[in-house]
User: Fold these one by one.
Assistant:
Number 1:
Amino acid sequence: MDFLQRSLDGLLEAGPYALVGLGLTLGFGMLRRVNLAYGAGAMLGAYLGSWLHVRLGWPALVVLPCVVLATALAGLYVQWLCFHDADRSIGTPQRASMTVSGADAREVVALASSFAVWMQLEQLCVNLLPRHLNPFPDFAATHEWTLGTLGLRPDRLGMCLLAVALVLAMTRWMNKSRTGLALRATADHPLAAHLSGLRVPALQRLGFVLACGLSGVAACAVLALEGQVTPMFGMWMLMKGLAAAVIGGLGHLRGVLLGAALLGVVEAHAQALLGPLGRDAATWGLLLLALLWRARSPASVLPGGLHA
Amino acid sequence: MLEIQGLACAYGKIEALREVSLSAKAGEVTCLLGPNGAGKTTLMMTLAGILQPTRGSITFEGENLLGLSPAQIVDRGLALVPENRLVFPALSVRENLMAGAYRRKDRAAIANDIEQQLDRFPRLRERIDQLAGTLSGGEQQMLALARALMSRPRLLLMDEPSVGLAPKVVAEIFGIIRQLHAEGTSIFLVEQNVHMALKVAQHFFLLQQGRVTFSGTPADLAEDDVIQRAYLAGTDHSRTAAAVA
């Protein structure tokens, strides 16, 4: 019975993981570059939220949209600073005849500079609110539902439903809308998108900012259950998000749900068997396995583009 | 219709185009010939706004095209069918066509145009919901052409539509080029397949090492001894090299 309860707890953990991974997988799908400042941007939004909540006493329903907006703006800043060059230079004929993939200097620069921005944004947060624990609008449930002998936290369940709803809504929007088509086309083949008359720089910016906005939603949802935000939050978001997104197949929107569920369940069992360190080991182990498995199947080595 | 004057384009220190001047008339098929490495694709990418020239001017219907973004150039009525097709591999055939019409807002007319392209290319109709990456080379070439036509271009730019395709498919593609010309579409075509190009084009230019070295009608081309030696003699060789590459 312990096993069942742990599995259920782990599965419910998938809600936060999927929410966090969704923005990362979308951002990667758009530009094929991992944004290391992903968690830090959301953390900045969350710290601003905490500041508005504590210092100015703003109500939760105003604070949460502000967090999402601030995170999206932080994303715009990161894109402008680190990922801007991806626009035009992609279209030289030498690259045109290749599929646009593989590492080049610009990708390394984007990765390294986004790491620098991560540190910068984290420092900004700590300067804004130097304490380790900072209050955040709290929506945690005070009681637990019981299913026979199993306990179920309704707030966790709500988070899972939110994650599923958001992933499905994003998938549908990507598949059905005109802008969704343009985003997928840009992610799929930037040069072909240029030639089809798509405004590639604007679309790349939109996709990136959208991804960061989603990370703001994820941060709100996760922190509303915790009721507080710490300086470790940015790191937590990047690591869990990256693990869920990579396991689910980077760039694959619905895959995030699967990756998050797998991660949650394996982590819960690892924690019970081996303690908190075992939990971390499980996260890294799964991430490593996912990467190794992906590297073995040549067709899907870091698949390009977005798959809705 | 299209006027190019003294155009130069470089990758770093390597000049791909040195001094290119040529023009394309409305209602005609203009063909640019040239061996591998002559700068043909560079010229097409410059026309499409992907590459920026270092010198010279490009005007289309009297309007300067330099400095415009690729999207603005599509708006002006130019559409490039790129070398090696460059379809959206992870999008379906229908989505590829819709992406080609992205700049247009008239939904009913777009749906109508998709039908028209599917009538023109029946094989695309059979594969309408298939991912473009799973199509054969010939089908991808047709899709790239149909996608470019979806923007309703006044001048269609085609970069080596025959490359890497079976002779039967090449004949099919050139049949469609003839048909488009008959419908009044102006076409600027880059080709290495001189025999096929002779059947469709009204005016020829020859590009060698970044310079235009010949301009004339098909009759001039057949008479010009220089071209026979410089280009046609080397055709089989260069095409073999392209096939190996």
Note: The mean pLDDT of chain A is 84.
Number 2:
Amino acid sequence: MKVLVAVKRVVDYKVQIRVKSDNTGVETQNVKMSVNPPDENAIEEAVKLKEQGLASETIAVSIGDEKTQDVLRTSMAMGIDRSILVKSQNPLEPLAVAKTLKKIVEKENPDLVLMGKQAIDDDSNQTGQILSALLNWPQGCFISSLKIEGNKVLISREIDEGIENLETKLPAVLTCDLRLNTPRFASLPNIMKAKKKPLDMIDIDTLEIDTSTKIKTLKVIEPPKRKAGVMVNDVKELVEKLKYEAKVI
Amino acid sequence: MTVLVIAEHDNKNLKSSTLNTISAAHKISDDIHLLILGKNIDELSNNSKSIQLIKKIIKCDNEKLENFIPEILSPIITNLAENYSHILAPSSTFGKNLLPRISASLDITQISDIIGIESKDTFIRPIYAGNAISYVQTDQKINLITIRPTSFEKCEESGGSAQIEEIPYIDSEVSTIFVNREVSKSDRPELGNARVVVSGGRGLENSENFKLLYDLADKLNAAVGASRAAVDSGYIGNEYQVGQTGKMVAPELYIAVGISGAIQHLAGMKESKVIVAINKDLEAPIFNIADYGLSSDLFQAIPEIIKELDLLNRINS
Ligand SMILES: Cc1cc2nc3c(=O)[nH]c(=O)nc-3n(C[C@H](O)[C@H](O)[C@H](O)COP(=O)(O)OP(=O)(O)OC[C@H]3O[C@@H](n4cnc5c(N)ncnc54)[C@H](O)[C@@H]3O)c2cc1C
Ligand SMILES: Nc1ncnc2c1ncn2[C@@H]1O[C@H](COP(=O)(O)O)[C@@H](O)[C@H]1O
């Protein structure tokens, strides 16, 4: 079984983001960039499948600019065998990302695609579902558990009501929730080893897909700030304030 | 210009997220159709006729639609799509799971999780866990959108008399089999929809202690929520998580107990009207956005609050 993992390079989740003063977007220059957090869960799951002898090869793919190589090196330091960077200067919308991933799937013929459930920058939560539809492969979204037996796939999905259990077949597209597993840290020797693992680069233009922007961003602004509140001295004061000032109880 | 709203339901009742989505649709057009896909939904469809804002109900009733497998639902929606200028679904796990498949089949980029509608083609959505607000515009021939339910009022459920149109089921080869759903039963209000939410974090220390929170919630007729740390540690189920990767809530009153206030948590609750934070660490960032902060040990504070509430109730009765 060959496993493909889609990895996005995003502003690190610990960074306090800043809206650009010209309101065209969010400042991404000179801020720490990392692997999109749920994509780390996808990487971890792929590496585990390899360790369990279920996966024969694991491949990470990312679409982004030259700098995106760093998250692919991180993926390989975590245990991914090799990676592919599809070079694109402009950020793509989920539909275009999915079309790009479809091309890579057609080239690499994986049996399983693992992705994150959502990118923490655009918070779209779309790409895996779109890829599944484009490939006409089963989709399993927001998974918190995965079991593969032959070509049978058993998953638990996190839904608003609790957990949903599904059974499906390979090949499939699965999107990972943060609770699927605990991503490992890359050890120093593995970081060194990852430098020698293959990282292929292809230009997005060679894939001949429509990557044009369909959604225009008119402006990006700061969210309204909440007014500073007060500290109360004790429980009695709290309850009184909630009752007579805020009138919410 | 007609707007199609994809109903979220449990084959018996509409979820309240559907009512929020209908209100959002009404900001775009007066001509709104409600699409109900499910199994044995005669009663559900008939009851939905009374929603005043709905002009027509389109229903497809088939046993294969019982569990909302997106691969089975999406061809039916795609088949109707060209009649509509906008297709809306709630940005619940139901809508998130389903609508991007329509994006794929129509080759249209979807706009996720909008919190406002500027005009028929311009929408407002949070990005970066709500740390930035983006205004986006599209000239695609169909606007595919998921709606954040807490950003739109629930519509009235009475006063209307919509027609029902039944459409045929479209069979599709799907290899996914539904096994089961593990749903926790509770008499408390629904988290996404409650007037008061009491949320617990890692400060609660274990699932036993969450009982304290349940007691407080019951006094306030509140829903219970949790931080990711509390869910990850197994104190409570995933369906209670509030935040960027959990549920969005915007109650009248949100009480955060033993929660530090990470941006990913704030993303899910900072639109609440009144926020109370109870935390023993005066430096906890949750205090920066709380209307009322109480720096105290929760194991002392919560029983005291319950006592005070009892006292109030006795005075009032
Ligand atoms: C991609 C991503 C997505 C995420 N999504 C979410 C999300 O959707 N929702 C979410 O909540 N988090 C999310 N997180 C996690 C988030 O970053 C924080 O780790 C999490 O919210 C912390 O939970 P907590 O506040 O309960 O725990 P902690 O940060 O450990 O805080 C516990 C607090 O309890 C207080 N405390 C301890 N004991 C007591 C006591 N006896 N009395 C009073 N106070 C006490 C402490 O002072 C502390 O402030 C996400 C993280 C990432 C990276
Ligand atoms: N540029 C990209 N390169 C590789 N994978 C991506 C990219 N954008 C999105 N993805 C994948 O799609 C998932 C969902 O992203 P989104 O639909 O944008 O929220 C992410 O967690 C990644 O696994």
Note: Chain A touches chain B through 79 residues (CB under 8 Å).
Number 3:
Amino acid sequence: MPSHASSDFPKSPDPADLSTDEIVAAVLAGDLEAYRQIVLRYQNEVMRVVNALVFDLSAREDIVQQVFVRAYLALDQYESGRGFGKWLKAIARNLVREELRKTLRHRGRVEAYAKLALERLDSPDDEELRLAREQALRDCLETLEQQDTHAARAVRWHYLEARQTADIAVEMKRSAGAVRTLLYRARALLRDCLESKLASP
Amino acid sequence: MKRLDELTQLAIEGSLSADEEAELERLLASGTEVKRRFQELIDTEIALRCLDERLDLSDAVMARLSGRAMPPLSVLPAPPASEPVSKDSFEGKVERWTLRLIVPIAAAAAVTLAFALFHDRTDFEAPALAVTGTVRVADESGKEAAPDRPLRPGDLIRVPTGAAGTLSYRDETRIDLTAGAEVRVDSDPARGGEKSKSLELVVGTLAAEVAVQPAGQPLVVRTPHAVAVVRGTRFILEAQDDRTRLEVSEGRVDFFAAGATHPAVVTAGRFAEVDPSAGAVVPLVRPLRHTDGLLALYTFEEGSGETVHDRSEQGDALDLTLSGAGADPLEWLPGGGIRFGKKGHLATRRPARKIIEACRSSDEITVEAWVEAAPSVASGPARIVTLSRASERLNFTLAQGDSQGDPERRYVARLRSSKTVADWPAPVGSATGRLSHLVLVREAGGRETFWLDGERIGERNAGGSLKEWFDDLPLGIGDDPGGENRSWRGSCHLVAIYRRALAPAEVMDHHEAGPR
């Protein structure tokens, strides 16, 4: 049985070593597997856009996958050198808008938040600041655990497990309104905590 | 600032009214400090929503893309007049114009060549046509062919009501044509390569069992809306006036919307539809419903009348009939589904013994419904799907609300075992006017799960067995058959009952498949 490992054939470059534009060229030339590297490279950025706008956990994953499928099908329209991440995020935003229109009944109202979030997501992204904010938020969540256990639990269930307030209300044996108040209080505390953490050197 | 926080909170929750939105805009225009705080609140919300553990979706994406590579030109359906070209450079423009000139010339040459091949071909394999009843065959000019004449390219086969036909090829490919089908033979050989088998399904349904085709020579079936490219598989293709549906039971089919260049790859156990009015370039592929263990299935596609047929094709059909004193006519919903009027419900005319006996024996059951909740409930739990005559004579019910009505807008399940018949409420707010997928599953031994819209919303160990079920209860939708005091006035799009516990993946498949 021939061993592929000892083959003298020249080895294809590892897609992980290539620039995104080089990978795009490889995919367009028929190397479908190279597209995996694109997914690995950009999935977190796409998730960030989708997560910010879609609350349902399974819908989020499905939309992220759809973004990459749609990008693949339109790959010949991507203009090399124009910033693949930016192009991909534009596809993600459009897809999320379509999904929101399809699935949400109070279209106008939901889009009020979506509009605001999109504005923020469209603003120039300082990766370092974003990572710092994420880490600070995790620290603030730990602080919140000590300040207000119930509010911290509501935040974890709502944001980390994507559970609806009605569901949390049943679990906590409170009214849905009380859970909303709890989340409101938690957000305000987290914002204040974030402000002080990001302001300190 | 407090008012700003409140308004931002409402915006985040999606419950900002138009007046409040205007108030928020006024506040934001009042100063940079307000705007800065507002942006921080939104940033905090975005950061919170992005906190969950990062997932690697690369396998899932690659699985979706598998087989989506551009197929060889010979099997492409009619390509669009011009593909978007992204290059704006001079070279790009030259290339585009060169393509615009060369492609039509090349295409014309190819069509001419194909036409010549078509008429001079000696390799055309006429499929044999076996018929039951009277099937009519007309040639390209519309002239009816003699009954015993071998099929020729361009022949149109019409299968009238009460008849059936089967096309057979030498490689044992077999295509069954059902009543109402119109199929043109080898209508366009250029599309599939000169040696390919090629058919046009003008209207109706065909079921195909296709032997593995030689490389580069797939079987191609066109419909008015779509093209199916087949290399060897089993599938059912249905062309209606406004859409084409493909179901694959074995292998895979590349399924193109007419004029599109990228196919949806439809693999075994999945289906796709091309609906030109929906405007999708690549058809959406969804799982087929699972049928193993099915006892009763209602799809509410009758469109009129007072009877809903059991379409499970398992045992005696348990059809449902509009019942109850002074029952209002059913409102039939476009695309399938019913809405109840003020009075009346659906019920079987006899006890649902095939359900009762099968579930007593298996000690398992799955009850599934696609519904939109009733706007209000007078006296609950209002029966959506029920095997009961009254609260005290009940085997199972999927219902809405409780004895106080439905103040908390929630669905509820009740399943009798030898140990319990306790209500099992879904979360508050679960019953909405939105189309929802409800599934109650019991495994042998008593573990039960309650699903809403593809999510597991509850799990419990009820224990006991189903052996003590009442054996004389009819199946009802909309109220207890005969009881008429647990009236449910929502709309119903699909109901299915299984003798077994559907696996979680199967429940999620059914949610993804939707009610149609």
Note: Chain B touches chain A through 56 residues (CB under 8 Å).
Number 4:
Amino acid sequence: MFPRPIQQYSPAARIGYQALLPFALLVWLIPLLAVMWFSVKSGDDFTQGNYWGWPEGGLEGVTNYWMVFAESDMPRYLWNSVVITVPTMIGAVALSCMTGFALGVYRFKGNLLIFFMFVAGNFVPFQILMVPVRDLTDQMGLYDTRMGLILFHIAFQTGFCTLFMRNFIRALPRELIEAARVEGVSEYRIFWYVVLPLMRPAIAALCVLIFTFIWNDFFWAVVLTQSPESQPVTAGITAFNAQFRAMYHLMSAGSIVAAIPPVAMFFLMQKHFIAGLTLGAVK
Amino acid sequence: MRSIFKTSAAALAAATMLSGAAYADGHGVSGPLRIFSDMSNPAPRAVMEGMVERFTEANPGVEVELVITDREAWKTQIRNVLQSGTADIVNWYAGNRMAPYVEAGLFMDISDLWEEGGLTETLASTQGSMTMDDGIWGVPYTYYQWGVYYREDIFAELGLEAPTTWEEELSNCQAIVDSGRSCYTIGTQFLWTAGGWFDYLNMRTNGYDFHMELTAGEVPWTDDRVRATFENWQTLIDMGAFIDDHQSYSWQEALPFMVNGEATAYLMGNFAVAPLREAGLSDDQLGFYQFPQIDASIEPGEDAPTDTFHIAANAENVEAAEAFLLFVASAENQTLINNGDNLGQLPVNSEAGVDDDEFLNAGFDMLSNNAGGGIAQFFDRDAPAEMAQVAMQGFQQFMVDPSTLDQVLQILEGARQRIY
């Protein structure tokens, strides 16, 4: 059920809404604003207990962000994130296009069973998988490599993507596929020339979703990698902590930098993102 | 005549240096040497890489393969690495932390190296904490002192002197509380800071040996001597010596109280000095004193967490590994890696030089000359990890509500019987 539009409420309720909305928004955004504010303060402010006030030594934004970019491993972590996220996105989406096609178009024994297996993967909490997956990657010699993370992410994300793609393909008009069959087009060509072009909106939406999922992943990054050679940026931010001290200002600046790609992705691809959230759901 | 004397003295010095260097060369050692290090933070990492570089320059025949692992992750990996035989040398810690690996036969006994290399003299202050089951199991490369960092200016304003006895300590603290301040800042959110307080109170009340027996699980926590320690602690708590709500702060978040003068002292490791200075406290405002005596008949024990290198029992290139350990332990190397541009801590080698820094000098002097009781490694290193966790939670609870002492001690005693 959709809520009643605000315009239909009484004037008093509308004014109350307009007055409370900015306040609620502020409360909602405080953690984010705090990180932004901390990222332009100097480390001394934290030792002086000056968390919210104007920094005594002036704003240090330039210094902090320069430290992050030029004098830390941050560029390397960002690059690792790219190297992990993009192949995962391509791999998971490509695989799920194929599985979605197979499960959505063909009727065969066990179709539903296989489909449920894909879906069931989504219901396994990854805390349960933590130890076995870590051991598996270790035994395969993939522990602490980007490849290990990529393979795991592809395997895990394909389940969700398959659900998404299969439902999307189910909703396509079957007549298109049957017409092509009547014309004698081979199944491979049907997939490539008929179904795939129709799936573009789903592919775009899924790419955006998977990109943000994987970029923001922290759990597996910590479980499966640990050196600057392979860690993505979400896990690498903690490298700003010295042995004894947490560098709040640098961590904040690093977090902002790390958050830019998914946020940019969201604003550039907003249409697909929202489509992605609802596509699978409204079926 | 004088110049001749000078030259010959120089020649003699050069000759001793050469022979020293020859020993460090390990008689021309060679071959691959695999070092697993946990010096993963930027400054320690640079130090480790620098040591390898200088060692290979002096020993061109050795090809060092250096693997640096995240410091926290290393704590779970060291056993695998030692058992699989992939390392010749590993980083670890002194004291009881060595026990699991010594008992499992994974570290090599290097007592002979200590004898031959003269380490029994130069590293004497930590020989005790490197010794276990009549063997010596590694060499230390750095440590740092713990003690009370205090606001000299506020003490002067109130007409107080740094205390040396418990009576002075209590009267000081009363004066500070009366002036509307707290005596001590502390942030116990992550528990270990409370462990520091327990270490000192227990070592001063009952002595270093008792403290070691307790952390080794040989004494019940319900022992009256343990209660005596907690009584002293409670005296301070009841006076209002500690800041309020300390359980919500990390150790860093407790610094502002000292910087802003709301609290006058901090029992902490020497790493607290850098942020305090950066926050604007000058060396005139900041002072250091050794934790005061409680029982005059007890030699002071000190916390000085010591980081170490060890040779794996199944090392393939023992000769090169020994040469590397001698190189690490040398006064020259320890002076360099511990100076302000590098680790900024204390060298263990008594012939090493210390940066001209008020607090490093005070610490070096205290640990070399006035730690007759012995050098402890800090509560969470001396006690097994599981026991430390339970115990430090208990310390925090006690600090928040001293009336729960009986309950806390019961929990700790239960944990002791289960864990050891």
Note: The two ends of chain B are 69 Å apart (CA to CA).
